[in-house]
Amino acid sequence: MSTLNQITFLLFCVVFLNLSYSQNGKDQPKKSIVVIDPGHGGKDVGATTKTGIKEKDIALGIASKMLVLNNALFENPLMLFLTRYTDTLISLSDRTKLSKKLKADIFISIHCNQAINRTASGTEVFIHPKSEVQAEESAYLGFTIQKGLADILGIKIRGIKYGNFQVLRDNGDIGATVLLELGFLSQTNEAVYLSKEESQSAVALVILQSIIKFLGL
Ligand SMILES: [Zn+2]
Fold first, then answer.
1. pTM of the full structure
2. Which residues surround ligand 1, an ion (CB under 5 A)?
3. 75 to each of 31, 37, 78, 79, 85, how far by Cα in Å?
């Protein structure tokens, strides 16, 4: 075989092997790692509604529904982890251990708001201005989620703010990192809405869709 023929043959082998390798599904791109942090837990109940529904339970409800929906509706496009799967209290420093170890692409801490002004309503997103690139990515993720919640579920947007929260600050140089305040438990309509299982599923679905949109999947 001439040298030119040998090179052509080798190139053919490389292309053919590459194609068959992808066709076998072994060359799938790495799944994006997403860590969801349901705020509070255990003896730290967070905010409560007038009827006694606790922020820690709403946050865990939404995060758990995201896990189920990621498997059931979207064919598992994300590697989704929670910082807590049950009603337990995790220290703030432990909440970011997993995301740092896994070098997560996305970290979302889920909370509900409360205010003395009982008419205050809507979603707030907090990001940490640690590095310009991360702040930019985090702001874009936060914007995508807030817009989804407003467009699909009609929840008012209160904007994206800088917040020096430990879970944001501690997250090293992982990907987009946001803390979501999903509505006010001190406002009657939002408290009733966020307490319902079906609303929690709707919010979980919109957050998932927004993550998928953000990642361009
Ligand atoms: Zn909270």
1. 0.86
2. 39, 46, 111
3. 12, 22, 9, 11, 21
